[in-house]
């Protein structure tokens, strides 16, 4: 019985120890992996290495130029020796820190005599405009490329003081200089031509300053002079769509009953331009009429001209009070271009806008960068002092739309810088924008889109890398992958000179990158610091773990004591 | 013993019938403490209506009982009240017979131990007399039938009564030693709600000890028995699941019943611990804590089996207590089942130090449940914290009582290796 009594307590303690060990085993073997698996933040795989490659933005812009020699510029045997293609590249490092480089590539193809017959017929006689039109019908040059026709110096196609004629389509007529006339070799001719073709390219396609301006989002530029700052801030940033709103402001409906055929005017004047700009962005137009909308500024009466005047300083205060009353299409996040037509009230007619030099502005309109334009339309000439109020007035939409169209061009970024000396630029086509102007816009927009999308994607990747708490769902990963793919394709298309595809891919890249960056599902666990997680675990698990730990410690100390006793017994 | 039992049964049936006819029946059937989304009679009726329409009763996330229940009530819906009263009677009779048989075995063990003179003399007060043990089965039946929790559960027509009946039958067949029926009833109980799976361990322990197979992991006979039991258990479970599939025609009862029990989507307040916790849990941690809470029920099986190897019936009692405290949708009907076992160990109640405190807390909480519910939902002057506090207190009291019972039982069984005296023979 005594032996039994000695055996029983150890059996009981053994069972107790076994029970405690089994609890600890379950906690460690099942609990810890379960905790690890069920509380990890879901992070889908992102192509991080490709994003890092994109971070060094190395764009290569490639423009195809086709040079056609007319009769009289090269001798027949020189014609046979003209090389077919000549590639010239120029590398500019825009920003060493961000490793942005632009490499302009000019692939020049020298055509001997392919279409020169038609050209030759115009060389001796003819007008440049007709020549340009008929030459265009011969060869349709794809988007982004140029054709330069070299005509002899003696040709009367161009006026005396003009060396280069830039056509409506993507063609230019270049007159060979007089310096190299006698006994010139082919190499001399080509070396003389290259810088001039390059100059034409810079006017018609892209120049270093244009591309750098397009990258102004990404690269810090030196300020430059005031005009260049104003120029760079005027145009809207690249966006997948724009909203255009035409508003007629009538502060005095008791005196003037205004009629404007806005629908017809938009169809006739604005739609052709927007149709041509369709590859760039989507446009939506609406119009409204506002009554009792006053300008926020009181115009001063100028007795010398017997008219009311608005100074250029007070123009800045005009927009704000009016803007509050303009409706806007709140359903879209696209930028809005507002074009306001203000008909001054009968007591403040006529109203003229003065520029900085106190001269009247001929168009009587002004525009605000990245906002829109305002035109003042004086109607006091339409009626005499004894007319019965209200007077019906039909607004001359041609004049109005002319001003608005010019402002629209400026606001959308179609450059209006003066051409270099001895250049003659053809007047715009009926659409309001020349093909090469569109190409210019497309070049700069593509670069801008690519730069913005790259910045967005690289900063998103950096953010996701640094903050481990952000959940990366599968749709985010898919958007990022598609953005990266589109960017790579856009860069490749720019390299090979397919401008239209480059623009399309760059737009897709921007859309995907913005969607990934601003997705709200990223933020689910963001403000969930690790110490709060412990605040969730500790109240439940600490009281449970304390007895387990204590019993484990007791087991360990008992084992140690038993070992010591065994050693003591052995000794 | 038949006459007092019959009298008791008649009394219980009368009370239940009286309550059925009164206006309290509807009131009780809506109390969240008595019915849960799993066991509510309203939902069974809804499932029956859907079945009559030809739509799967599990469409619409209303009905969460097993298909066998709905097919049972398809035939018995007009006699529902009688069915539930009969169920209670079956449970009580099963418990009565089970405890009677258990007492016989306890007596036998006491006799052998006393003859072997294993008792130290100062433990004689723990030895039980036959007179005490004579009335224990009747007390057990009475504790079950006249327990207000049981009456409330029966009047509310909660299907918890059916679950209790199955578990009681399982206990009866286990104690009688019938391996096949024990496996069948256990699989039926597991099929109803998953948690009785933990009763496998005590059943195995009891049956092996009854058949004198030593519980030793190195002996082949032990593993052979375990394999037999497991085969019978899994076989009958498989048969029941396939039968449900063929009756219903689709597998959509599996996510509706077992998915519902395990993933706890319905957070209606009840007397359990899950609802408040998961109402406030962050979505990110929900899966982890769900797993933790569900593992918590199965967690105590192995340590308790190790500790209480010699006392499988007490282990059954412990497991039932653990299940009814920690299950995902407990009701007072589950509590009533294990409370019925208290008279079996009444000889230890002398040593429970805090029995008065625990009983008072349980009574007070039971009274406070409807009060705080009214304050929270109808008067609007309390909030869920009040109700959950009472829930927590209720469960803490139960756990405290369970733990002290276990401690005292172990102490009583080990100190001096107590086995009951057998100086008096069994009648």
TrEMBL record, chain A:
- Out of the domains of life, which is the source? Eukaryota
Give the family, as the similarity comment puts it: Belongs to the PIGS family.
- Designated gene of the protein: PIGS
Specify the species.
Sparus aurata
| Compartments it resides in | Endoplasmic reticulum membrane
Keywords, sorted A to Z: Endoplasmic reticulum, Glycoprotein, GPI-anchor biosynthesis, Membrane, Transmembrane, Transmembrane helix
What's its membrane topology? Multi-pass membrane protein
Q: Single Gene Ontology BP term? A: GPI anchor biosynthetic process
Query: Transmembrane region positions?
Result: 18-36, 534-556
Presence of the UniProt keyword Coiled coil in the record: no
Q: What is this protein called?
A: Phosphatidylinositol glycan anchor biosynthesis, class S
What is its pathway?
A: Glycolipid biosynthesis; glycosylphosphatidylinositol-anchor biosynthesis
InterPro entries tied to this protein? PtdIno-glycan_biosynth_class_S (IPR019540)
A Gene Ontology term for the protein's cellular component: GPI-anchor transamidase complex
Q: What is its main location?
A: endoplasmic reticulum
Automatic annotation (TrEMBL), chain B:
Keyword list, A-Z = Endoplasmic reticulum, GPI-anchor biosynthesis, Membrane, Signal, Transmembrane, Transmembrane helix
Topology of this chain in the membrane: Multi-pass membrane protein
What is an example of a Pfam family matching this protein? PIG-U
Position of the signal peptide: 1-17
Q: Pathway, per Swiss-Prot/TrEMBL?
A: Glycolipid biosynthesis; glycosylphosphatidylinositol-anchor biosynthesis
List GO BP terms, alphabetically: attachment of GPI anchor to protein; GPI anchor biosynthetic process
GO cellular-component terms in the record?
A: GPI-anchor transamidase complex
Q: Where are the transmembrane segments?
A: 82-99, 143-172, 229-251, 257-278, 285-302, 314-342, 354-379
Domain of life, per UniProt, equals Eukaryota
Q: Which locations, inside or outside the cell, does it occupy?
A: Endoplasmic reticulum membrane
Q: State the similarity comment.
A: Belongs to the PIGU family.
- State the name under which the record lists this protein: Phosphatidylinositol glycan anchor biosynthesis, class U
């Amino acid at each position: 019985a005594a032996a039994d009594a000695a055996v029983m307590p150890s059996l009981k303690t053994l069972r107790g120890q076994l029970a405690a060990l089994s609890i600890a085993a379950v906690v460690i073997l099942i609990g810890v992996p379960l905790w690890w698996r069920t509380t990890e933040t879901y992070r889908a795989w992102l192509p991080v290495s490709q994003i890092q490659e994109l971070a060094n933005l190395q764009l290569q812009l490639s423009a195809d130029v086709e040079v056609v020699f007319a009769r009289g510029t090269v001798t027949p045997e020189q014609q046979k020796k003209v090389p077919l293609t000549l590639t010239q590249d120029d590398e500019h490092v825009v920003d060493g820190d961000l490793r942005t480089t632009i490499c302009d590539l000019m692939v020049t193809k020298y055509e001997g005599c392919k279409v020169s017959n038609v050209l030759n017929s115009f060389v001796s006689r003819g007008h440049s405009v007709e020549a340009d039109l008929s030459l265009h019908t011969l060869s349709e040059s794809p988007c982004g490329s140029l054709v330069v026709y070299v005509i002899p110096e003696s040709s009367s196609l161009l006026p005396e003081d003009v060396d280069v004629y830039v056509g409506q389509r993507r063609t230019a007529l270049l007159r060979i200089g007089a310096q190299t006339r006698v006994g010139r070799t082919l190499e001399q001719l080509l070396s003389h031509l290259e810088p001039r073709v390059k100059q034409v390219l810079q006017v018609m396609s892209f120049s270093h300053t244009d591309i750098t301006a397009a990258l102004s989002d990404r690269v810090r530029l030196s300020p430059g002079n005031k005009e260049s700052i104003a120029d760079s801030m005027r145009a809207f940033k690249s966006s997948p769509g724009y909203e255009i709103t035409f508003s007629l402001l009538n502060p005095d409906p008791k005196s003037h009953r205004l009629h404007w055929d806005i629908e017809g005017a938009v169809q006739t004047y604005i739609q052709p331009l927007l149709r041509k700009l369709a590859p760039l962005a989507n446009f939506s137009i609406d119009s409204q009429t506002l009554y009792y909308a006053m300008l926020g500024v009181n115009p001063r009466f100028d007795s010398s001209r017997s008219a009311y005047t608005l100074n250029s300083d007070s123009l800045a205060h005009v927009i704000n009070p009016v803007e509050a009353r303009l409706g806007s299409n709140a359903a879209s996040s696209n930028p809005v271009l507002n074009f306001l037509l203000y008909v001054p009230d009968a007591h403040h007619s006529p109203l003229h806008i003065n520029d900085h030099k106190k001269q009247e502005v001929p168009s009587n309109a002004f525009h605000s960068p990245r906002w829109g334009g305002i035109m003042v339309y004086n109607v006091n000439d339409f009626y005499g002092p004894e007319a019965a109020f209200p007077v019906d007035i039909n607004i001359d939409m041609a004049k109005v739309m002319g001003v608005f169209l010019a402002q629209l061009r400026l606001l959308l970024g179609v450059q209006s810088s003066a051409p270099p000396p001895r250049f003659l630029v053809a007047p715009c086509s009926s659409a309001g924008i020349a093909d090469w102007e569109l190409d210019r816009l497309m070049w700069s927009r593509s670069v801008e889109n690519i730069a913005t999308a790259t910045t967005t994607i690289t900063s998103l990747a950096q953010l996701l890398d640094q903050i481990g708490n952000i959940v990366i769902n599968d749709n985010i990963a898919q958007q990022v992958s598609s953005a990266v793919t589109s960017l790579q394709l856009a860069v490749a298309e720019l390299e090979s000179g397919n401008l239209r595809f480059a623009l399309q891919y760059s737009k897709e890249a921007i859309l995907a990158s913005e969607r990934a960056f601003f997705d709200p599902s990223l933020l689910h666990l963001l403000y969930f610091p690790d110490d709060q997680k412990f605040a969730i675990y500790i109240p439940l698990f600490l009281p449970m773990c304390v007895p387990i730990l204590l019993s484990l410690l007791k087991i360990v100390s008992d084992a140690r004591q038993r070992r010591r006793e065994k050693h003591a017994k052995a000794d | 013993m038949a006459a007092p039992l019959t009298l008791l049964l008649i009394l219980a049936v009368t009370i239940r019938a009286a309550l059925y006819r009164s206006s309290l029946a509807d009131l009780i059937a809506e109390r969240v403490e008595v019915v849960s989304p799993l066991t509510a009679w309203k939902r069974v009726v809804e499932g029956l209506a859907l079945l009559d329409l030809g739509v799967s009763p599990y469409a619409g996330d209303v009905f969460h009982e097993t298909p066998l229940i709905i097919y049972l009530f398809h035939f018995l819906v007009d006699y529902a009240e009688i069915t539930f009263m009969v169920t209670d009677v079956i449970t009580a009779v099963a418990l009565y017979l089970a405890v009677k048989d258990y007492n016989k075995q306890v007596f036998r063990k006491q006799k052998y131990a006393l003859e072997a003179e294993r008792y130290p003399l100062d433990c004689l007060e723990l030895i039980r007399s036959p007179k005490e043990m004579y009335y224990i089965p009747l007390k057990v039946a009475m504790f079950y039938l006249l327990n207000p929790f049981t009456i409330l559960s029966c009047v509310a027509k909660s299907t918890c009564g059916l679950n209790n009946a199955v578990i009681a039958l399982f206990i009866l067949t286990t104690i009688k030693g019938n391996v096949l029926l024990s496996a069948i009833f256990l699989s039926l109980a597991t099929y109803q709600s998953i948690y009785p799976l933990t009763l496998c361990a005590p059943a195995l322990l009891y049956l092996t000890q009854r058949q004198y197979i030593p519980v030793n992991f190195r002996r082949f006979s032990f593993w052979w028995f375990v394999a037999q039991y497991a085969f019978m258990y899994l076989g009958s479970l498989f048969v029941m699941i396939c039968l449900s599939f063929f009756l219903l025609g689709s597998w959509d009862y599996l996510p509706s019943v077992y998915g519902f029990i395990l993933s706890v989507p319905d957070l209606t307040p009840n007397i359990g611990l899950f609802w408040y916790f998961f109402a406030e849990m962050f979505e990110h941690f929900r899966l982890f804590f769900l797993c933790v809470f569900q593992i918590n029920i199965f967690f105590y099986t192995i340590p308790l089996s190790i500790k209480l190897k010699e006392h499988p019936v007490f282990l059954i009692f412990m497991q039932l207590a653990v299940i009814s405290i920690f299950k995902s949708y407990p009701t007072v009907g589950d509590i009533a089942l294990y409370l019925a076992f208290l008279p079996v160990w009444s000889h230890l109640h002398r040593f429970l130090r805090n029995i008065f405190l625990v009983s008072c807390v349980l009574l007070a909480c039971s009274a406070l449940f409807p009060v705080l519910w009214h304050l929270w939902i109808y008067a609007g002057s309390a909030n869920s914290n009040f109700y959950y506090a009472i829930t927590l207190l209720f469960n803490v009291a139960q756990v405290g009582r369970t733990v002290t019972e276990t401690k005292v039982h172990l102490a009583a069984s080990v100190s001096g290796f107590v086995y009951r005296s057998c100086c008096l023979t069994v009648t």
